[in-house]
Amino acid sequence: MNKLVICTTGTSIANACLAQREMLRQRKSWDEDAQPLKLQILDFLSKPENDLRHQDFRRKVCAEMNSLDRLGMERTDRVVLLASDTAQGRVCAEMIKKVIQESYSMSNAQVEVRRVEGLQVHNSAMLRERGLMNLVEILLDDYLTKDELRYSYDVILNATGGFKGTVPFLTILGMLYGARTVYTFEFSNELITLPPLPFTFDVEVYNRVRPALNYIEEEVAVREQAFLSKVLNYSSSEKDMFMAFTEPYENGRVTLSPLAYAFLKIDTRQIVLVSEQVLDTVRRSQGIHKVEFERLLSNVGLPLWRRIHMERWRLTDLLVIKQKRTGERIAGFVRAGVFHAALAFAEHEDYQRVLGNYRMTDFDNVNFVQWVPQEDLGIDEDYSDGIVEERDKLIVEKRELKERVERLNEDVIGLQLKTEGQRNAEEKLKALLKERDLELASLSQQVLSLQGAKQMLKQETLSLKDELGKDKASGKIDLKQLIRKLFKGHT
Questions:
Q1: Mean pLDDT of the region 374-381
Q2: Element containing residue 147 per DSSP (H, E)
């Protein structure tokens, strides 16, 4: 794999130049003229005895080349030179670039000079407030978090050149982002790989001080006591430890130290994307196991937390994330700065049996959706006194109680709907009965009318019979007159 070496650069390439002393005295800014120094460096490099084809000279020309040459640089590699924010720093970085290109036959695009604004030693306040913070931002935003670089190059941080105060920052960032950090004592024969710092205890301390650091970040500068009051479970005996995350500011206040700024920059929570397999595993989990999976998915979006809980398995290129005491694991990868949770394992046996069958490329066409935490489950770090276990039990009991309440609410709503339905049915029945009563009343009226007509008809019939009897007795029956009487009042 080709190398991408990111170097802090100093001025050792100009050690033989008289103009260097004058430049130090004048303290020229980045854009100011530094032609005399440039010409003297070029003159030094052009001497016949100074031949870059010779290894001995390459390693003596400057501190940066001493370490680069020992890394075995090749023409397909890349170099980034982080230059201090002075005219002297600019010229020296440009001359180092020239030497690198000639020594390893690299193109202009393969060697990049980056200005780090504020990175100088003449103004300590500017160095703290801008220089070191800009250094951290460049390293993180432009290189260490770029997946296309991390997976295409062997990224190496070279802390040999430049200000020695940058070494801790490169070491910490290199450890957290899996990049080697190397250092060569000036013109020594040994390339040293700086060991990782012991972060196990420091992370616990950091978790406690993080709310206080966030408070300073919002306010820029605060009173010392206000800062300490935000530290979780603070004890006065710990004052020096926590104040190390700050440095003095104006009017007796304190602000973030560059190291604390680096931690906050690293520890910004990012979104997490999950596959359907992960979602399904979480849905099917019960009780404590479900809580542990949800905590894993919530915290894996914190780069610092993720780095500390990350392990690699030799049979796959997927990253495996596991908390300290639980068996649940998530396997995934970082793409475009976002962690993709591809697989979830509830049991260690499943993890060992299945994980080796998968690679990152197996998930190129898999759909991922954003994980949205439903509640803050905290960061699972300290298990010595069983507090976390007790907290998780309470979380499970709370969830079970909430589910019971929801079921009761559903039952109540069901009863309410049933009662409402009965009430509506009763109202409809009443309306129907009222309608039937009205119909019955109408029918009763019609019956009475018919009965009255029947009685009248009966009386008329009797009257006709009586008249007919009289006419019959007298022998005078007028048929026409009888018909008229019969139909009288009915025509």
A1: 64
A2: helix 147-150
Could you list the beta-strand ranges (E) of 359-399: 369-370
- Dist CA 23 CA 476 (whole Å): 163
pLDDT band at 339; cut points 50, 70, 90: confident
For residue 383, name the pLDDT band (cuts at 50, 70, 90): very low
Rounded distance, CA 255 to CA 217, Å? Answer: 8
Burial of 203 (0-12, 13-18, 19+ CB in 10 A): middle
Place of tokens 């980056």: 114
Q: Which residues pair with 322 in a beta bridge?
A: 329
| Cα 124 from Cα 63, distance rounded (Å) | 24
In angstroms, how far is CA 239 from the centroid of its own chain?
Answer: 32
The Cα–Cα gap between 209 and 216 comes to 11
User: How buried is residue 107: exposed, middle or buried, by Cβ count under 10 Å (0-12/13-18/19+)?
Assistant: exposed
State pLDDT tens for residues 83-105: 999 999 999 999 999 999 999 99
Q: What are phi and psi of 53, to 5 degrees?
A: -75, -15
Cβ proximity of 160 and 194 under 8 Å? no
Round to whole Å and give the CA distance between 215 and 378.
19
Rounded to a whole number of angstroms, the distance between the first and last alpha carbons of the chain is 121
The CA-atom distances, in angstroms, between 437 and each of 250, 377, 428, 431 are 93, 67, 14, 10
Instruction: Report DSSP letters for 44-63, one per residue.
Output: HHTSTT--TTSHHHHHHH-H
Q: How far apart are CA 466 and CA 223, in angstroms?
A: 129
Domains with residue ranges and CATH for the chain: 3-193 (3.40.50.10770), 200-266 (1.10.10), 272-370 (3.30.2310.20)
Cα–Cα distance for residue pair 470/388, rounded to 1 Å: 122
67 closest CA partner among 195, 196, 186, 164? 186
pTM: 0.63
Total residue length of the chain: 491
232-251 residue pLDDT tens: 889 999 999 999 888 888 78
Question: Could you tell me the two tokens for 283?
Answer: 């849905």
Which tops the pLDDT comparison, 470 or 363?
A: 363
**CA–CA dist 71, 74 (Å, integer):** 9
Tokens of 109: 């695009």
Neighbours of 287 (CB within 10 A): 14
